[in-house]
Amino acid sequence: MQGMQKKVLWCVLGFFILSLIACVYWLSPDSKNTSAQVSENTAQNLASAPPADHSSLNEDAYHSKSQQDTEVNCQLKIDDSQHLVVNSQTRDCFEYFITQYGENDLEQIKNHFGKFIQGQYLEPARSEIMDLWTRYLKYREQLAQIQTPSAKQQDKNYFQKIFNSIQDIRKRFFSTSEIEGLFSNEDIYQNYTLDRMQILEDSSLSEIEKARKLKERFEELPEDWQQNLQELSKLDDLHTLTKQIKARKGSAEELRQMRTALVGAEATQRLETLDTQRNAWQQKVTSYLDGRDQIIKSNMSDSAKNQAIQELRQQQFNSSQEQLRLRTFETVHDQGGELPFNY
Q: Residue 213 and residue 217: Cα distance in Å, rounded?
């Protein structure tokens, strides 16, 4: 379980870091080919050309090789007056083409995007899309230039400084309504994550108070976000608050109250049952490793030691699954590492 929690925690943290500094799929420009600028002549030609016959479009012409079996993820919203409505789908469309980078250079990506828009949309939406696309590329280029803060990584102030830098860059390239349309979903998650970090880092609060505040903050999320983040957030918060309580040698009652405040009474009961199972496993493994150490230190021959250890293992661990799981503890123990009991 702990292995899963750590994996989930690092996935969340990694996603947050990468989404903040936007380097998951971006490049540092170093040549004319990586310029994020579309020429005015090209934009004007695209704007004035008639839309292509949709039935003859070959979507493979707009894909990279790895995208050949996918549909172009570009469902832009256009109103009845043929104006672009900027929303999260607009950004998804831009990012679909940008993720071709690596297989295609930036000029090829811009060419693919321009041809696709020319064949799919009428004026004035076509010009509006191309204008926003050009500014979006410049915005992405500027994200790669953000300076890493000197603050300690993984604390709230570190990420807040990066987030503030991102907000400042957005204001250079987009209107307020465009920012809302392009980034509102991302901002919901980032603001929620920053608030969670602030609560968890607040030394004036007990773990029980933190659990209550975390639950209140979670319930402020839109319903669809609650559905997506519920299990992820609970695992992360339970792990962090449990670690804080154990670090200061808090009582079992404090642990129970924290869990109840965060996940409710029924889930707390299940967690306590799991604790009992973990403690039994820990005692069983510790007893086995102590006995194994005594055998290894004995004066028996190597073959006799191996036989004795095998018999001890068979006596204490009946199932093949337990014995397989035990191998990890033997390896970590022999290497002098900390035994991974809390999972």
A: 6
Displacement of CA 167 from its chain's centroid (Å): 20
Residues 13 and 158 in one domain: yes
Name the residue range of residue 192's domain.
2-21+148-254
Whole-Å CA distances, 177 to 58, 183, 280:
34, 10, 57
Is 199 found in the same domain as 236? yes
Instruction: Kindly tell me if the per-residue pLDDT of 141 is higher than 80.
Output: yes
Within 13 Å and on the Cβ side, how many CA atoms surround 196? Answer: 26
Kindly report the backbone phi and psi dihedral angles of residue 85, in degrees, each rounded to the nearest multiple of 5, phi listed first: -105, 110
Contacts of 51 (CB under 8 A, 6+ apart): 118, 119, 120, 121, 122
How many structural domains comprise the chain?
Answer: 3
Domain identity same for 120 and 172: no
Nearest to residue 140, comparing CAs of 117, 111, 109, 118? 109
What pLDDT, in 10s, does the model give residues 29-64?
333 333 333 333 433 433 344 444 433 344 455 555
pTM for the full predicted model: 0.65
In this structure, which amino acid lies at residue 245?
I
Per the domain annotation, does 342 fall within a domain?
Answer: no
Residue 264 domain flag: no
Q: Is 281 exposed, middle or buried (0-12, 13-18, 19+ CB in 10 A)?
A: middle
Q: What is the pLDDT of residues 104-122, one digit of tens each?
A: 788 999 998 999 999 999 9
